[in-house]
Amino acid sequence: MKMKYILYLVLIISISSCTDKFEDFNTDKKNPASVAGEALFSNAQKNLVDQMSTPNVNRNITELWAQYWNETTYTDEANYDIVERGQSQEIFRYLYRDVLMDLAEASRLIVEVVPFDDAAAVEQANMLQIIEIMNVFVFQRLVDIFGAVPYSQALDIGNVYPEYEMGDVIYSDLISRLDAAVAGLDPAYGSFGSQDLIYGGDVDSWIRFANSEKLKIGIHLADVNSTLAQSTIEDAVQAGVFTSAADEALFAYQSGAPNYNQIHAELIVTGRKDFVSANTIIDIMAGLNDPRLDNYFDPTSIQPLPFPVDDNTGSKTDIVYEDGENTILFYPLGGGEYNEVFIEGPHTVPASDSTAGIMTWLGGTYGAASQFSRHTQVSTDVTEATFPGLVMTYSEVLFYLAEAAARGYDVGMSAEEAYNAAITESILWWGGAQPEVDAYLAYPGVAYATAEGDWKRKIAYQSWIASYINGLLGYTTWRRLDYPVLNITPTNEEIQEVTDIPVRFTFPVNEQSLNEANYNAASEAIGGDELLTKIFWDLYDANPN
Amino acid sequence: MKNKKVLSFLLFIALSTMTLFGQSREITGTVTGADDGAPLPGVSVSVKGTSIGTITDMNGYYSIDVPQNSEALMFSFVGMATQDIPLGSQSELNVVMESTSTELDEVVVTALGVSREKKSLGYAVQEVDGEAVSQVKTDNLVNALSGKIAGVQVKVANNIGGSSNILIRGSSSLFQSNQAMFVVDGVPISNSMTNKDYGAQAQGRQAYDYGNAISDLDLDDIESISVLKGAAATALYGSRAANGVIIITSKKGKQSSRLGVTVNSNVTIGVIDQSTFPKFQDKYGAGYDPTWHNSDLPGLDWDDIDGDGLEDTDKYLVPYYDDASRGGPLDGTMVYQYDAWLPESENFGLATPYVAPENGPLAFFDNSVSYSNSIDISGGTDKTTYRMAYSNRSATGIYPNSSLNRNNFTFSGSHKVLKNVNVSSSVNFITSKGKGRNSTGYSGNIMSMFRQWWQVNVDLEQQRELYDQTGENLTWNPNAWNDPVPIFWDNPFWTAYKNFPEDKRTRLIGYVQADWEITDYLSLMGRVSADTYTELQEERRAVGSTSAEFGTGNPRQEVTSGYSRYDRSFIETNVDVMLNFHKDLGERVNLTAMLGTNIRRSRMESVFAATNGGLAVPELYALSNSASPMLPPDERLEEIGVNGFFGSVSLGYTNLFYLDATLRNDISSTLPSENNSYIYPSVSGSFLFNNLFEADWLQLGKLRINYAEVGNDAPPMSILDTYDGMPPFGGNTLASVDPTKNNADLLPENTKSIEAGLEMRMFQSRVGFDAAIYKTNTINQLMPVDVSFATGYQRTWVNAGEIENRGIELAAWFTPVKTSDFSWDISLNWAKNRNEVISLFTDDAGNEVQSIVIGDLQAVTIQAKVGEPYGTIHGRNYVYHENGEPIVLSSGLYDKTATSDQVLGNVNPDWTGGINNRFTYKNLSLSFLIDWQQGGDIFSVDNWYGVGTGLYAETADNNDLGNPQRDPVNGEEGGGIILPGVLEDGAPNDIRIESDIFAEGWVRSPHARFVYDASYIKLRELVLTYDLPRELIDRTPLAGISLSFVGSNLWIIKKNLPHADPEASQGAGNIQGWQSGVMPTTRNYGFSLKLQF
Question: CA angle at residue B1028 from B1025 to B1034, to 5 degrees?
Answer without folding.
Answer: 155
